[in-house]
Specification:
- Keywords: Oxidoreductase.
- InterPro entries: ADH-like_N (IPR013154), ER (IPR020843), GroES-like_sf (IPR011032), NAD(P)-bd_dom_sf (IPR036291), Quin_OxRdtase/zeta-crystal_CS (IPR002364), YIM1/Zinc_Alcohol_DH_Fams (IPR050700).
- The chain is α/β, with parallel strands linked by helices.
- It has 2 domains: 173 residues, Medium-chain alcohol dehydrogenases, catalytic domain (Quinone Oxidoreductase, Chain A, domain 1); 110 residues, Rossmann fold (3-Layer(aba) Sandwich).
- Strands 3, 4, 5, 6, 7, 14 and 15 form a 7-stranded mixed sheet that branches. A 6-stranded parallel sheet has the order 10-9-8-11-12-13, sandwiched between helices.
- β8, α3 and β9 form a beta-alpha-beta unit.
- The relative contact order is 0.16.
């Protein structure tokens, strides 16, 4: 099969190559997915899991990408809950070969069914950003109706999903970003917007939840706004919480079929809109990784057009 491979960590993006790789093996409880569309996180070439397996053994050349949307073509021994020919999407394991390939082996529990009305490119934009937002708001943040959520990077992949989910949950939502993001964030349903270059976080008042994707001083200043019963959730670094200002949570997103099902239902009926960016063919994946070629929205690698 054709796949994008990374052979040397020091080579970075320049080391990405399109080449022939062996067809993946379906281990117990795996499925093989024919990839129709895939996505990646730009920094994953620096992740330890890209280069070593869970036992610490070198696994180069590795195939990057951890978000997938496609069709099940094979079931591993003992696999239940999915069937050959089924449309699926989800988040793959950090320490296994990824989704920038024609086929990928995935644990069945990391995938959810995908309705025929949702195109694969849109679905591939959702797993990491969507599950991160879902787990931050509801699993770790325990957001409830009537509470106030402060969402940093509200125009980005995670932030834009979080704004929509928090608003649907009945929260008051304050989004942050740069001035150019204001209308987009308000259009997603945010009740207020703060320009981090010129506005004052301290003018927001008390909040029940902070979702941080920035870290540093923004995270620390935001923590001071949280009510004693509130939570600061960061995907960047462990929050430093001033005394009597709630609790802090740092987490890394985890695969979760139940969460994917919740996100898919909202995507299907139009309650959720991922921010899809430029769509590239597999051969141009290296270009998609380059910062100069990443406009707003999630870059998508599409292997099967019109699906």
């Amino acid at each position: 099969m054709k796949a994008i491979t990374a052979r040397q960590r020091a080579a970075g993006i320049d080391g990405l190559t399109l080449e022939d790789m062996p067809y993946p093996h379906a281990a117990e409880n795996d499925v093989i997915v024919a990839v129709h569309a895939a996505a990646f996180t730009p920094g994953e070439l620096d992740w330890p899991g890209t280069w070593t397996d869970r036992a610490g053994r070198d696994r180069a050349p590795s195939i990057p990408g951890h978000e997938v949307s496609g069709v099940v073509t094979e079931l591993g021994f003992g696999t239940t809950g999915l069937s050959v020919g089924q449309r699926v999407f989800g988040l793959t394991d950090w320490c296994r070969n990824g989704t920038l390939a024609e086929y990928v082996a995935v644990e069945a529990r990391n995938l959810a069914p995908l309705s025929a009305t949702i195109d694969h490119a849109t679905a591939a934009a959702l797993p990491i950003s969507g599950l991160t937002a879902w787990q931050a708001l509801f699993t770790h943040g325990r957001l409830s109706p009537g509470e106030t959520a402060l969402i940093h990077g509200a125009a980005g992949g995670v932030g834009s999903i979080a704004v929509q989910l928090a608003k649907e949950a009945g929260a008051r939502v304050v989004g942050t970003g740069r001035a150019a993001d204001r209308e987009y964030v308000l259009g997603l349903g945010a009740d207020a917007f703060v320009d981090l270059d010129h506005g004052r976080l301290e003018d927001i008042g008390e909040v029940d939840l902070v979702l941080d994707v920035i870290g540093g001083q923004i995270l620390y200043r935001s923590a001071a706004l949280v009510r004693p019963t509130g939570t600061v959730v960061s995907i960047v670094e462990p929050p430093r919480i001033p005394a009597d200002n709630g609790r802090g949570v740092f987490f890394v997103v985890e695969p979760d079929r139940a969460g994917l099902v919740e996100l898919e239902s909202r995507l299907r009926d139009g309650r959720l809109r991922p921010r899809v960016g430029t769509v590239y063919p597999l051969a141009d994946a290296r270009e998609a990784f380059a910062p100069a070629h990443r406009p707003r929205g999630k870059a998508i690698i599409q292997l099967v057009k019109g699906s």
